[in-house]
TrEMBL record:
UniProtKB keywords: Cell membrane, Membrane, Signal, Transport
All residue ranges annotated as the ABC-type glycine betaine transport system substrate-binding domain in the record: 44-185, 207-304
Region span, Disordered: 26-45
Annotated signal sequence range: 1-21
Keyword Ligase: no
Transmembrane segments annotated in the record for this chain: none
Record Gene3D superfamilies: Dipeptide-binding Protein, Domain 3 (3.10.105.10), Glycine betaine-binding periplasmic protein, domain 2 (3.40.190.100)
Protein name, entry field: Glycine betaine ABC transporter substrate-binding protein
Pfam entry (one): OpuAC
Subcellular location: Cell membrane
Amino acid sequence: MMKTNWKRVGLIAGLSLSLVAAGCGSSSEGGSSDEGSGESSASVGESLNHEITGIDSGAGVVKASEKAVEEYGLEEWEVQTSSGGAMTEELSNAIEDEEPIIVTGWTPHWKFAKYDLKYLEDPKEVFGGEEKIHTMVKQGLKEEKPNLNKILDQFSWDASQMESVMLKRKDGTPIEEAAKKWVEENADQVSEWTKGAEKVDGVEAKLVYVSWDSEIASTNVIAEVLRQQGFEVEITQVQNATMWQAVAEGEADGMVAAWLPGTHGENYENFKDQVTDLGPNLEGAKIGLVVPEYMDIESIEDLKE
């Protein structure tokens, strides 16, 4: 059976993400700051056209949000899919005008450092508890490229470190430059990642990632480390399922972007027998529905009408 051209699929999917419906969360009547921030839950629903601003359709946080709509009996509500960038642009525009908005959110993310936000309480625990971001590599990588496998296996950092790179990018610093600066300023930690790994001369390292700010940051940081170790690094942005498929089929060496157990749980079940899990590279991650602090709602149940 012919293998899927995952890179082409990812690029086509990336282009399709730019076709986002304009005005989501800001075009309806009653969307002003006076009505959106302090009115009843019904007013919030009406002002948002009962729309939750999501990211790409393959993301676990979107699927969990769709499940939450069902579990909480929010029949009129719908999760509108777009992309991570489109979601944060909608959020930024709404906050600038102090309008209501509900987005699919996750931590780590620069938006929590830049804006005053809160997760809506989830008494039914639809979104689950703490998540961890895992590193996944293709089977046989340890034997084929032992130095690459060792560095990827030893890669680990925390949310505040990741968010510092994300914020620099958000503030206009090119991601390659932000990643390189972080690596320079954290030489001791980087040395732990490369401990026991020999430098190489042009060995290929192919990594895939999704277009989330968190994974753009982590992938570029580890890519910079690998380049300094002598690897010829290629990083490719694709969609969630394509990312897992690329590693499973051996078209990519690995990824540092697997959110478990919830966000990428379905992808993990589909591909767990075809990839090697090197364990978490970041702990304390979280997903859920997120709103600005000025909105007078605290729980997903407040969205009922």
